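Data availability (excerpt). The following record was deposited with the supplementary files.
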Amino acid sequence: MHLYETHLPVADTKIAERFYREIVGLPFAHRDATRDIIFLWADAKEKAMIGLWGPDTVYGSHDSVNRKHHLAFAISLDELLAAIKKLNEQGIETLGFGGEKTEDRR
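Predicted structure:
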């Protein structure tokens, strides 16, 4: 069994799409032309995807309530360290389980 799809509420689908495509590296899957929703492949095509749901959608944020959401990918240690470096180079702070700033501790 594996995760096929997850929905993430986002404040702005254009900004979120740019982050997940350009920084994280997820490929585009589908844009719902009738709703503010964008889907990205999170694994091999047709294996897993992430739906970015805008604020006016059923899964979007409502009433200005900020909710925490969590999504995790299984990757190798080398891929993890490369991702941390890439995110940090883009000015995105990465945190460990305890909330501390991550660093290479090999």
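Summary of structural features: The helical segments are 13-23, 77-89.
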